Amino acid sequence: MPKALQPHPDRALPAGEAREVARRIHASTRSLPLLCLHGHVDAALFAADEAFGNPADLLVVPDHYVTRMLVSQGVSPDRLGLPRLDGTRTAEPREIWREFCSHWHLFLGTPSRYWLEHEFAEVLGLTVAPSAETADELYDEISSRLKEPEFRPRALLDRFGIEVISTTDAATDDLAQHAKIAADLPGRVIPTFRPDALVHLDRPGWSDLAGRLGELAGADTSSYEGYLEALRQRRQAFIAAGALATDHGHLSAAATPLEHGEAARIYASALRGEVSAADAAAFAGHMLFQMAAMSAEDGLVLQLHPGVLRDHDPAIHATYGPDQGHDIPVAAEFTRSLRPLLERFGHAEGFRMVLFTVDETVYSRELAPLAGVYPSLRLGAPWWFLDSPDGMRRFRELVTETAGFYNTSGFVDDTRAFLSIPARHDLARRIDAGYLAKLVVEHRLDEDDAFQVAQDLAYNLAATTYTRRS
Amino acid sequence: MPKALQPHPDRALPAGEAREVARRIHASTRSLPLLCLHGHVDAALFAADEAFGNPADLLVVPDHYVTRMLVSQGVSPDRLGLPRLDGTRTAEPREIWREFCSHWHLFLGTPSRYWLEHEFAEVLGLTVAPSAETADELYDEISSRLKEPEFRPRALLDRFGIEVISTTDAATDDLAQHAKIAADLPGRVIPTFRPDALVHLDRPGWSDLAGRLGELAGADTSSYEGYLEALRQRRQAFIAAGALATDHGHLSAAATPLEHGEAARIYASALRGEVSAADAAAFAGHMLFQMAAMSAEDGLVLQLHPGVLRDHDPAIHATYGPDQGHDIPVAAEFTRSLRPLLERFGHAEGFRMVLFTVDETVYSRELAPLAGVYPSLRLGAPWWFLDSPDGMRRFRELVTETAGFYNTSGFVDDTRAFLSIPARHDLARRIDAGYLAKLVVEHRLDEDDAFQVAQDLAYNLAATTYTRRS
Amino acid sequence: MPKALQPHPDRALPAGEAREVARRIHASTRSLPLLCLHGHVDAALFAADEAFGNPADLLVVPDHYVTRMLVSQGVSPDRLGLPRLDGTRTAEPREIWREFCSHWHLFLGTPSRYWLEHEFAEVLGLTVAPSAETADELYDEISSRLKEPEFRPRALLDRFGIEVISTTDAATDDLAQHAKIAADLPGRVIPTFRPDALVHLDRPGWSDLAGRLGELAGADTSSYEGYLEALRQRRQAFIAAGALATDHGHLSAAATPLEHGEAARIYASALRGEVSAADAAAFAGHMLFQMAAMSAEDGLVLQLHPGVLRDHDPAIHATYGPDQGHDIPVAAEFTRSLRPLLERFGHAEGFRMVLFTVDETVYSRELAPLAGVYPSLRLGAPWWFLDSPDGMRRFRELVTETAGFYNTSGFVDDTRAFLSIPARHDLARRIDAGYLAKLVVEHRLDEDDAFQVAQDLAYNLAATTYTRRS
């Protein structure tokens, strides 16, 4: 007999004396609207508002949390249908789905399992757990659900209670999809300005992008000055489209400005295709400082996601491209790296910076001490591998005592997996409820304060963190 | 109606089965006398024994835990009355106090909140919680308390049950205040020898201090030999005044000796005002080794507090001076850094070294393995940002299994905030009681052993760690 | 009256609601056979199968967990009978035993205490706890037990339920002891191939070992090619003797291959006694890559134990030799270090690598993300200082959410202390039971899944991890 799928009402709440308190706290936040102010859902989804495809292409293929776990146990990327750069793809959706279902036990103890159970049961209304035996039945059931109009992206926005959702968009995106959405749903789906591909001068194709940037902005990017001007223009275009923030993925948090002439020299060398790796790294750090300077002017909130070595496996990258779950964290450093930026903008009125990490060692050592004194800083929610029950609990335990609650950003879901968004917010609210309940039963926090803090963590802090300050 | 201020009798004790055990353990240690063998209260306080001033200047302005949190949420240092180096100060004490009270929610979940609640309720006898509404009432109530004779510093020493309290004093301090106190309270308030300003050759004003050192010691500090001799003499003067220990704040734990000639060369270059940053750093590491050598001779316990980047924000430093809460930790390293020192003195009979850190990653990786084998080492209590409920719990969890209890130092309060001392010791005793109770209910420790260990952690280990061994 | 020795049936299980679940889970795994696939018991023990000597030489002198703690509190290595390299040893076994017993309190809260209590009570049948008063009585009681035939090594193999035990053997070991054992107990005691002494070219005596290797393998190790060939041959000899794995202790995890000519040049320089430290380090990293290449061919599982600075105290090393508890961890790095190796072999079918660490900071930052995507990787059990109740709990909490359960290796006891083996496995099973029970009562894992995972962690994963894959 197949196993029933029944997410427990108390899942991820603490046991013992704290449970009752945690239940009450969670009950007070679970129905709050969702602010999704940092994520990676494709804007085209909401622009087209078409029915989703099959279960595999919705729930397996694009979710690198899921595919990386299957790959780690010997399932080849091809059997999971990861599209090769050469355009070939051999696996059929139903075969992919069977692979996933027959390896369901691999996800025991992982956040993917919570999210998926929540999606299966509460979003898709399934009642049996995935397994080799139930794979086909589930495939058919989900497929038929996805054809119903209430499973279209815009309908789900409402059903999920999403007040605002932010996408992440290349600085060279023309924002056409956003324009289309805004016509129907003004202010509901907003872009985020991501200039990464433009500030890393040694990435293949950079000079084409610089040209594209110039065209879009109506500026001449054949000079460094023009390039800066073009970035400024694009930021204004994003602001006009509703953007509240920028996003920056750098290998390190280094943010040391260069002399203008030196920056211009490196920029020129890149245009000639001759930039060195060291110069490119220095320029990236310089541009992080410049982005802070622009944020201090135009009020876009600066989000920094450093410390990940992208495309760890060159063969996977060569065959399947980037973002296939083969990005691996390295040790992070913020205290020295951010010092020049904070020296200049740490107390600047119009400036807000949100720091993320995938290296937990900096929570108590660097991030909480920094956010606990610089008014411009907020600590972002536990990111990526750390967006998990124990990961979120450790975040609170390691930062609250130094930074308090009010120097944190509130939850951000940071996902491409649209159907997982309610599950992710709900899990975060459960973990925060449990953390607060523990403080209450240990008489470290009054219960009335706990309720207020829970509201703030679930909703208000995201709202106040992601506010344009200019 | 204002909220009542009622620190719960079980605060910071674990919930569930362990609570009853933790209560019993805490009851057995809560009234033990306080040994305050590392701290920063000003000796002049006890020499003059005058009434404290107003609530703001007692409880807000000098407490950088408090001011940094308020600054992090946009309250300017000026509104908090931080004295500018140019002598100006605009905010009135009552205004400062109002700022503090109206931001009381920022401290939820932080140790400052525990300490202050304890001080308010148990030391000052207040009954309502701070808030914008209660600020004036509390200000007046505290002000009138502070005029009573039982709130004078020496009276509080008795009331707090402080057996001995150690100040921290520059090596160039003439110890006049201590002489004055010793006449009335022999052995009760003792100095600690802190030579930091003398061993960091590139700090502004160093050569004046070297001159001052020579005068005080009656030695000629125009040579490196005379400088070493003068330090030796000052250590003797501190010993005569009751000192048990020295204290050293270095950016890194590096303790590599230089050849005598090389040290002399660097010293001479510093006297000429020409020392390089690299030479100054090497000299600081050399002097840490020399201080260990002197400790091995004269028996002063060497305390090392490394790993903090001081004055992270140069503008704050330029305006308000050092120690304004803008010191931020960096990654620490002990295994390689201390090796030369431990190779020479790690097994030396007369030598005792207490290691502190603000980087938790070294607890299980380096500190516990080192203290678990070198007889000269003890692990200091969780320091600064880590002197907090969860911080102290993690310390025990991360070091005990490798270093045991008896290679730790017992609690040190390490504070300038005199009124917070009982609160800090009490909180540490509660957390240790909770940790031990958890071991008891998990059948990892017998209850009779837990009581003995609790006594040792609360009192005996501080006494035996801070004993001059020569 | 002496204190009774009564390990509690629920020891190291969680308190509260999770206890009952943990008991049930532990009951289901506690009697499973032991797979001891990485350890350091001497093969000669099983070859000779003679009675153990006295209590001190069995339980104190060779256990560096025990001696390091005693040394840390001022007991000299000589009083503990650590054999000096010059052959002298002054302390009598009974005196050593008395030192140990009178310092029994030092082990409170450490895993040594659990293991020893388990050994005393459940293996040796003692009923009173060690103390200065009971030392002689215990000494006599243990001594008489050890003369009984059921306390011979082979008898204990049966009594302990050890299905297979692996020793660790130098690549230059002739495996004569294993041949002797295999005649009586085929497949029960197997060797592990450890080439460390041969790949670190700057260690004293290296060239003699290289010569010895050549003799054993019938290859000419005066050339780099011959050296590689000899290693290949010895691996085959180990495979013939039942080996499943190799073991590698390196200071760093660096595994960057050199050009063949460069490797040959360094090898030749070492033969001339002229290798530089930098060249030796590069060669060690190169050889780690080569060992992976050989593993990918012959299927031996590659175990890596990096990140330990050996012989931290040169004086102890000079007097007593290596492995005296003076090895101290340093910060570890895997993401960049292993990249060249994983690029080449991370997805190779026949290749399996098990990663260990004594630096917990890499659990969630590097190890779980790596093992959660590369099919060749498994995460080894918490090693050395981390093989402890809280250490094992933190391992599960920090790796499971990213790597799941099925990218971990199962428990390895990794000990020279034969009598402690059942205690170590039992403690690991208790901690895993507690971790799983906590997930169950927090509704993060179904109880039926918890039972299956517990079986896998206790037995199946060790079996499947340590399987030759060629």
From TrEMBL, chains A, B, C:
Known InterPro entries for this protein? Metal_Hydrolase, Uronate_isomerase
Q: In which pathway does it act?
A: Carbohydrate metabolism; pentose and glucuronate interconversion
Query: What's in the keyword line of the UniProt record?
Result: Isomerase
Transport is among the record's keywords: no
EC numbers for this chain: 5.3.1.12
- Reactions performed catalytically: D-glucuronate = D-fructuronate
Q: Name one Pfam family in it.
A: UxaC
Class of this enzyme = isomerase
| Gene Ontology terms describing biological process | D-galacturonate catabolic process; D-glucuronate catabolic process
Highest taxon, organism lineage: Bacteria
A GO MF annotation of the entry reads: glucuronate isomerase activity
Instruction: Report the family membership.
Output: Belongs to the metallo-dependent hydrolases superfamily. Uronate isomerase family.
Protein's UniProt name: Uronate isomerase
